[in-house]
Amino acid sequence: MEKFFQDFKRTFSKAAGKVVRKSGDVIEISKLTLAIAAANSEIEEEFEKIGRLVYEGYKSDSPVSEEISVHCALIDGKYADIDEFKEKMHAVKAVRLCPFCKAEISKESTFCAKCGEKL
Length: 119
Hints:
Elements: H1 2-59, H2 66-93, E1 95-97, E2 104-106
Antiparallel strand pairs: 1-2
């Protein structure tokens, strides 16, 4: 019976050691996965910064390639779409934008509730 308990203890110890090693591996893999995701996120942020710089150059008439000009023109079109959507949304909400501070105000307002300017 004593041999049974010794064998059981030895088997249990080996199994526990494997579980500890595996859980350590899982934790390490999780850390590395998070590090990879963070690095990819930082890369995307840098690509976005590059894109913004290129677009700002395009808007200030800096020379850009024809391919970049096409994409920048598409961005201009999307900004125009957004402005149109905002106008429709303001009509549905029965509001307008203050020309001074851009706050939403009711169409009937004579003064802006945010900045106090006369409309």
